[in-house]
User: Which sequence fits this backbone?
């Protein structure tokens, strides 16, 4: 099965393409706005993804730039999807804006590469572990209802793994296997769950041992990679998501995402093999 054509990614790809097409015909934003009798801020906001791209506006721009039918059909399909809502939008009232954006990006990705320095990756968590983890969030003083809604989001995200829509490659610090969230039983079940998921063909888990080499001291991060679209390259370029208690941030320029990919390669090379990692997880889980 293919990943969902997420409206979040459609909006972002469309913004990139509208800017690229304008520049390709040698027009400035001011010139296009003047010719179409639009405001310059509208052109700018469309190209920066700051406003929702309406299909009729996209069609007008494509006609103005004299874009061929194949490219126009692709971009109009993006525009049509961009106007829709993702399931995650229903939870926007209890989630940081950056996290809502992240879920929309993750839904369209085909591969997730992650380093987790403190906890089990969200897509590989049990419900009880996720609930316990969310309950420790004192920075925003979450109510019980907010904890539950955040837990529901995490569980819904996990369908990507269960349905093998997403390849997951995780490097996890051994301390995450020891750091307890919830009861001992919750942790035991979490580690057993991690072991079971690591046996799936689309999941790879490697543990960075505490008594082994640590190539760098880095906070957790996620790299999302997107599928190829026939004739149009990747649906979207790689995105790095840096996790923070105050809300995550994104890095999207090619040089920065490349450096994070190298960092993850160093962490993976320093980690236990997948087989050794499974043995360690099983021992910690008392399996």
Assistant:
């Amino acid at each position: 099965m293919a990943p969902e054509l997420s409206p979040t990614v459609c909006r972002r790809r469309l913004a990139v393409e509208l800017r690229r097409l304008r520049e390709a015909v040698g027009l400035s934003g001011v010139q296009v706005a003047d010719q179409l009798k639009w405001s310059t801020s509208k052109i700018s906001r469309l190209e920066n993804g700051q406003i929702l791209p309406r299909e009729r506006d996209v069609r007008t721009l494509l006609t103005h730039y004299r874009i061929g039918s194949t490219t126009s059909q692709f971009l109009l399909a993006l525009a049509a999807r961009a106007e829709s809502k993702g399931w995650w939008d229903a939870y926007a009232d209890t989630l940081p804006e950056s996290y809502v954006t992240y879920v929309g990006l993750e839904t369209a990705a085909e591969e997730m590469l992650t380093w987790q320095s403190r906890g089990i990756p969200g897509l590989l968590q049990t419900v009880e572990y996720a609930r316990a983890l969310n309950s420790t969030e004192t920075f925003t003083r979450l109510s019980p209802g907010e904890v539950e809604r955040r837990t529901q989001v995490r569980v819904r995200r996990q369908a990507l793994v269960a349905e093998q829509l997403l390849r997951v490659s995780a490097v996890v610090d051994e301390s995450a296997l020891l750091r307890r969230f919830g009861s001992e039983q919750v942790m035991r079940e979490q580690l057993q769950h991690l072991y079971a998921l690591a046996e799936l063909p689309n999941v790879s888990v490697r543990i960075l041992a505490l008594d082994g080499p640590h190539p760098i001291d880095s906070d957790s991060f996620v790299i999302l990679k997107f599928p190829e679209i026939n004739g149009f390259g990747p649906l979207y370029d790689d995105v790095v998501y840096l996790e923070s208690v105050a809300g995550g941030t994104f890095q999207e320029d090619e040089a920065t995402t490349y450096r994070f990919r190298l960092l993850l390669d160093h962490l993976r090379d320093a980690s236990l093999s997948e087989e050794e990692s499974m043995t360690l997880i099983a021992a910690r889980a008392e399996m």
Summary: Residues 7-82 form a domain with the 434 Repressor (Amino-terminal Domain) fold (CATH 1.10.260.40). The longest helix spans residues 7-24. The chain has a mean pLDDT of 92. The longest strand covers residues 167-173.
